[in-house]
Structures are given as structure tokens and as C-alpha cells.
Amino acid sequence: MDLTYTAAEEEFRSELRSWLQANIPDEWQRPNFWESLDDDESFRLRRDWERDKALAGFAGIQWPTEFGGRGGTPGMKAIYDVEMVLANAPRSVNPLGLTFLAPTVMAIGTEQQKKDIIGPLLRSEVIWCQGFSEPGAGSDLAALSTKGVRDGDDFVVNGQKVWTTNAVHGDKIFTMVRTTPGSEKHRGISMLLIDMHQDGVDARPLKQMSGASEFGEVFFDDARVPATDVLGAVDDGWRTAMLLLSFERGASGISQYTEFRRQYDEVVAVAKKLGRDKDPVIRGKLARVLTDLECLRLHAMHVQTEVELGHDLGFEASMTKLIWSEPSQDLWEVFDDILGEDATLSELSLDSGGSEDITALHAQAMWSRSVTIWGGSSQVQRNVTAERVLGLPR
Amino acid sequence: MFFALTDDQREFDGAVRSYLSERFDLAAVREVFEDVSGDGHPASLWKAAADQGWLAVTVPEDQEGLGLGLVEAQVIARALGAGAAPGPWRGTVLAAEAVRLAGSDEQKAAWLPRLATGDAVGAFTLRGSAPGTLTAVEYGGVADVVVARSADGLVLVTGATATPQGSYDGTTRLASVEAGAGEALPGATAEVIAELEARATVLVAADLAGIAREAVSRTVAYDKERSQFGVPVGSFQAIKHALADLHVAVTLAEHAVLYASYAVDAKLDGADLAVAVAKAKAGDAAVAATAAMIQYHGGIGYTWEHEAHFFYKRAKRLAGQYGDADAQREKIATLTI
């Protein structure tokens, strides 16, 4: 058993920590700071900051140096994820590009695609969206109907994508498009890399139940994409998508634990302010969540071990999604139980007199309802776990 | 980062499991289970435990032990749970741990080699106090020495009268022990007793994790084969989702037990939390998995002939030992609120 990081990894941690301390303005740490900005201003600030971070060498931690990455270890990536949480760093503006697209391009992209895509993505010069879900194709991705028809050197694309993160701030979108007319299910689909700055593409925000608009919908109306901008082979997009989604397991559960454990402490603080911390029912509920969060931390250590040993985790990723998403949601249900009949109030009335604004906590509670849907719903993850991990018949 | 069993530890695990599957399978467990008046202490299994080092695992090498730790001990405990194996293994290991951590040199010399080689059977309890009546002592009826609480700490009790106590968990025999004053273990401070309780709790949690995994594996295997409405019942989503959830819960319980065993051995900060998490998670997982084992076998799962009740009953008993899941959660609350 060795639960430590190497000296080189700890050295990396202190370098990163120093940079973060020096480069996150105090003002950004103020409660509700990001909520006080309009969406465009928030995005611009975060985009510039993420570019500066990349230029300082703190991006693409595990990417090979030939792609502008740091060539670091899986341990450094885990440390990076944790330190970003501890520093309360701004959320990435390019999560889908960084997590999914870049490693896929490194694996199967053409030399020109590697050159054109990876560097600008790393420096936040190009923000990438993911065009997978459609109104008629959610969990059943293979039901997608957005069409691409070959016209000279281009494909001409028509259709609609939805639940697209950063839709209104995106520059390009990697999109699953049916390029063989009349094809069914996972056949005849290609992964097209579409420029969103053209007349044939219209991105609109969607307002979430939390009130924020982090995602949107994207309409294609005779959008044009050069036939060279296909990732992987034409009509082989399903395989490209499966490869792309396999990179999700690169996300570090140790940092998720760090974030949720901080949220747990915030919820406990509210319970104490209301004198609810002595209620045995609340204590039992909190402890149940804490138990599952500790188990998330241990599962993350298991995943990290397997990654460092070079093992393929395969369909275990479906379990990992359940293991982090469900307790993080349970926590916020306990939060509402603590608040009781005042669960919906924006302010906490304190026994000592006075009140405290808890809208940021409510926002996190609302957000938690989404985590068991996006990236494969809990029900899909249970199907995959049952069929692919346990081998139960389909 | 290496959070996993080493090759040596895996080999140990494989050795215990192959012995049980080849030489002491569930048919052998059934003989013990149904022999209500027997001592529940089969000689062949005890000899294997002695010969293969299961008893010597945590005893120091200079006392004829293997000098290994709680990580290795939980490997054995998990395999014994998976086999629903009877016998006083845990009590003997924990009695040796008490002597190792709190005994005088003379006590170590007198007991550790005998416990490590199976020459003496040990029992361990933290319920009640000697002198007095100790209730529900595992294998109190066959123990040569019982480690128990006293007013000042812990004592070694020998020559006590034991009366068998009925229990629906036929994989384990319990006895009421009339303990004399015993012989004090001089090093039994409150800290040492707390560490022994942590070690005992981890070994019980490991048995529970072993039970839980076995229950899920056997149920998955059965539901792949059992056909109703012309299809395997395991193809129904109601069953798939339940088994997926149990698989996740058991996987987490296994992580939690492994980590707790290491945390206690390495004296990590947070070892108390780790032990409580392991016991809460493993206890809940084992009770849920064995109840599901009965349910998802249908009528056959409710019969005496089927083995599901061995696992369910063993899980029920162990889930309550050293604090049930609710008691562990209260400890967790105290540590984190």
C-alpha cells in the first residue's frame, strides 16, 4: 500500500499552488462573485485566465510535450484537479475540448488536425462544444437524425443538437451527424468538426431550473463543413465517439471528493447555525452521505492505482459515475431536510438574530439534480453495470 | 499511489479460497450448521488454518507467527466470510492480537506460539466484564483462553465454564461464559483497547464484505440461468438495477475494509473514521445483498435446502457486532459534524 505521491509530484503541487495563489484575484473569492457577473463577462474573464494558466504551463498536465502539454504523470493530473478545487479556481471554459476532443485528436486525428486543433484549444483560443444529444436522441444516442450530405468538397448539415454546454460561447462543435442517408442506429454516422461562426449555425441559450444558462441548443441550417474536417473515418463516427467518451475516466475522483467534502462541511455549518446538528435523524442522514463520500475517495484511489498500472478500467466507468453523482445529490437533499419548512427561503434566519444569504447553496442544490442525467443517466449507468460488468443478459 | 492488494496478498487470498472450495465447501458448512449440538469447530478446517498460517498471520515471527498485519488478516477474514466458514479463527487471531499489544513477555511466550499454531483456541469479547457472565462469546465453548474486559482493562480468562447459547446463525457457535477474575494484561490501556476494538471491527467488516460479494456473485450466476416468461430473469431491468446497485455497494465496502485495515496498521489520522465507514458500509451491503440473494432466487431461496440462509443469518449476526450501521453512523457524525 502506498497512498503517497512522488517527490516530483509534490514539487509540481507546490509550483502549481504558488501560481494559483498569485494569479487568482481576491475579488474572485468573494461569495456570489461569479453569480454577480453577466454570462458574457464571466466567460471572458475565465477564458483569459485559463489562457494565462496554459501559457504558464499548467494545462494539458498529462499531454505529451509535443502537443504543448506538460508530459506529467497521472499523479500530477490528480494533484492538478485537487489543487484547482482547493484554490477555488474558476471553472474551465473548455471542459469538453480538453477532456474529450484533444485526446481523441491525439489518438486518431490527421497530422493537420493535430496541428490545427490542439494548441489553440489548450490556450482557450478556440472553445469547443460537443454536439451529441438531440431532441429525439438523448440516452439513445444512435437515434440521432442530424444529416450531412456531401456537396463537392463539403458536407452540408441540417438538424438540431441540444443540451450543448457553452453553446452561445462556442467557436466550434464536434458533432455526430448521419452522413449516409437512410442509415440506421450506429451505422452511417460521422464526427464532423463544424465552425459555429457561419450563417448556417444558430446557437441559443437554454435556461436551466437553476436559472443559469450554461447550456443551449444549436441549429444547423445548411451549415457547411469541409470534408477534411471529419474526425476519424467518414461513416465511422460511432467508433470515434466511443473512443472519445472513453477519455471521461481521466477525470479525477479525488478532486470530486475534495469538492463534495467541502460542500458537506458547508451543509454541516448550516445545521450548526440552526441547532439541527444535534438532531439524531439529521446526524444519521449526514453520516450516510459522508460514508458514501469517503467511499468515493477510496474508489478514486482505486481508479488512480489502476490508471498508474496502465490497466483499462473499461465499463467500470459506469460504476464510477454512480459512485460520485448520487451521494453528491443526496447531500443536497439532506440540506433541505435541515432547513425544514424554510427549505426554499433565500435567507437563513439565525437564532442569534440577523440572516444569511444562502442562494449560492440553493444553486448548488439545484445543479445537483442535473448530475445524474448528463453524461449518461443513472439508469443507463445501471444498465451498463448490470450488462457489461456483471454480464447479465440484455 | 498503490491502493490494492500486492501479489503476495492476492496469493494468500487465493490459497484460502481454494482450500475452502476444494476441501470445505457449503456441503461441509451444512453439516456443521445442522449439527446443532456440536461444537462448530471442525478439526480438518482448524488443521488447515494452522498449517496454512491463517492463525499465525499477525503473530510476530519470533513467536512462531508470520509477522504480517491487519491487511493480510482481512484478506483471510473476507475469504472465510465468502465461504460461510465455521470455526474460532477470528477469536483466536484477536486473542493473539490482545496478547501481542498488551501482554507481558511471559504472557506472550505462554500464548502467542500456541495461538499461532492452533495448539490453543482463543476467544475475544468486549461485552461484559470479568469476573462475571460474558454473553454471546464466539466459540466460548471451545476456547482455551478468553480475552475479556475487566474493571481495569483486559484479562486473560482460562478454565471458565461455558454454556452454549442458541443462535439462528448456525455457521458460528456462541456461548455464555462464567468468567473468573482472570490474569490482567498489563498493557491494556484505553488506547490499546480502542485499537483492539478497531481491529476486531475491521475483521468483522471483512467477513461481511466477503459474504456480500459471494451473495451478489451467486445471485448473478443464478439469474443468468433461471428462466421465466421464456427469458433469463436476469434480463429484467428491475433485477438488473438492483444487482447493479448491490455490486456498487459491495465494491465500495471492499475498498472501505481494505483502507480501514491499512489505516489501523499504519496508524493514519482518520483511522477511526475509516473503521466506522468500513463497518457501516459492509454491514449494510451484506444484509442487503443476502436479503436480495433470497429474493432473487425466488421460492428456492427461502428453503432450508438452499444456502442463501447461511449467508443471510451470518450477515445478520455480524452486522450488529461492535456496533451496527446506525451506531457507526453516530460515530461518523461525531467525527465530522
Provide the spatial order of strands within the biggest beta sheet of chain A. 1-4-5-8
What is the typical, i.e. mean, pLDDT of chain A? 95
**Regions with little confidence, pLDDT below 50 for 5+ residues of chain A:** none
Topology-level CATH name of the largest domain in chain B: Butyryl-Coa Dehydrogenase, subunit A, domain 1
Overall outline of chain B: globular
Helix-strand makeup class of chain B: alpha+beta
Order of neighbouring strands in the sheet with most strands of chain B = 1-3-4-7
How would you describe this protein?
The complex is a heterodimer of chains A (394) and B (337). The model of chain A has no long low-confidence stretch (mean pLDDT 95). Chain A has 394 residues and is α+β, with helices and mostly antiparallel strands. Chain A has eleven helices and ten strands. In chain A, strands 1-4-5-8 form a four-stranded mixed β-sheet. Chain B is α+β, with helices and mostly antiparallel strands and 337 residues long. Chain B has two domains: 7-184, Orthogonal Bundle (Butyryl-Coa Dehydrogenase, subunit A, domain 1); 190-336, Butyryl-CoA Dehydrogenase, subunit A, domain 3 (Up-down Bundle), CATH 1.20.140.10. Chain B has eleven helices and nine strands. Chain B has helices spanning 7-23, 26-34, 43-51, 70-82, 89-102, 105-117, 190-225, 237-265, 271-295, 308-320, 325-336; strands spanning 122-124, 132-138, 145-149, 154-157, 161-165, 174-179, 183-184, 227-228, 231-232. Chain B has a four-stranded mixed β-sheet with strand order 1-3-4-7. In chain B, a hairpin with a 2-residue loop joins strand 8 (227-228) and strand 9. In chain B, helix 4 packs parallel to helix 7. The longest helix of chain B has 36 residues, at 190-225. Chain B is globular and about 70 Å long. The interface between A and B is large, with 46 and 42 residues.
